[in-house]
Design a protein that fits this description.
The protein has 261 residues and is an alpha/beta fold. The protein has a single domain, classed as TIM Barrel (Alpha-Beta Barrel). The protein is 48% helix and 13% strand. The protein contains 13 helices and nine strands. Strands 5-4-3-2-1-9-8-7-6 form a nine-stranded parallel β-sheet. Helix 4 packs parallel to helix 6. The chain is globular and about 45 Å long.
Length: 261
């Protein structure tokens, strides 16, 4: 598809120049109602989010904790599909240039057809892809397709990833390096040693390091952003939506997180 604007890199570079930390917010596409992602993305962007992850619901989400699993099941029950998610992106792109990343699992993409899906995603206005169960070695088979589509492939590192492997993953990843704060699933609460984040940053020469999993409060976000280039909020945000908070209230909470960074 040729070269195209990389919204992720542009956003993170602008934040670096401003000496600000990035806030990435995760939303489950199709939750709490089938079309809710569109107004939620626009409100959360207005509230200070720098990048939005849209979760692609799957029936066997290995990396997702109970909060996101439940939201995914609600979305699946309401008939969410990959095509509907791409239609949401197209609608969002009519009024927003916020970087959009799809996060999900490989099985539905393979059923759809990987090359067809990645090209369709790029045409819809998606900027990057996160596939948490795809190891470095397997990711290489999809890199030419993603590169051709102009999509950033964002890979993950964990507290058990060796320094040499961190460097290898960083060299392949595009956009940013997703630094998982713990070895559990999303929403797992644990302290994040500064030594771990500093080790990732020492070995990641190419990409900004953004930390996710278990960040629930403005203070959590502030503490982690002291060491990282930004934070990723998922389960805590989905939980507020699940509890019935209004879009405006969700936006106000996102504003508090951004202010704390």
């Amino acid at each position: 598809m040729g070269a195209r604007k990389n919204r992720i890199n542009e956003s993170l570079e602008l934040l670096r120049l401003r000496k600000e930390k990035a806030l990435v917010c995760f939303l489950t596409a199709g939750f709490p109602t089938i079309n809710a992602a569109i107004p939620l993305v626009l409100e959360i962007e207005k509230s200070g989010a720098d990048i939005i992850e849209l979760g692609m619901p799957f029936s066997d989400p290995l990396a997702d904790g109970p909060v996101i699993q439940q939201s995914s099941q609600v979305a699946l029950n309401q008939g969410i599909t990959l095509d509907k998610i791409l239609s949401f992106v197209k609608t969002i792109r009519q009024s927003s240039e916020i970087p959009l990343v799809l996060m999900g699992y490989l099985n539905p993409i393979l059923t759809y057809g990987a090359e067809k899906f990645f090209n369709s995603a790029a045409r819809s206005g998606v900027d990057g892809i996160i596939l948490p169960e795809l190891p470095l070695e397997e990711s290489k088979r999809y890199k030419p397709i993603l590169d051709s589509a102009g999509l950033a492939h964002i890979l993950l590192v964990t507290p058990t990833t060796s320094p040499d492997r961190i460097a290898m993953i960083d060299s392949v990843s595009n956009g940013f390096l997703y630094c998982i704060s713990s070895t559990g699933v999303t929403g797992s609460r644990s302290s994040v040693p500064s030594s771990y984040i500093n080790s990732v940053k020492l070995n990641a020469k190419k990409n900004p390091v953004l930390v996710g999993f278990g960040i629930r409060t403005p203070m959590d976000a502030h503490n982690i952003a002291t060491y990282a280039d930004g934070v990723i909020i998922g389960s805590a945000l989905i939980q507020r939506i699940a509890q019935g908070e209004s879009i405006k209230d969700v936006g106000n909470w996102v504003r508090q997180i951004k202010k704390a960074l």
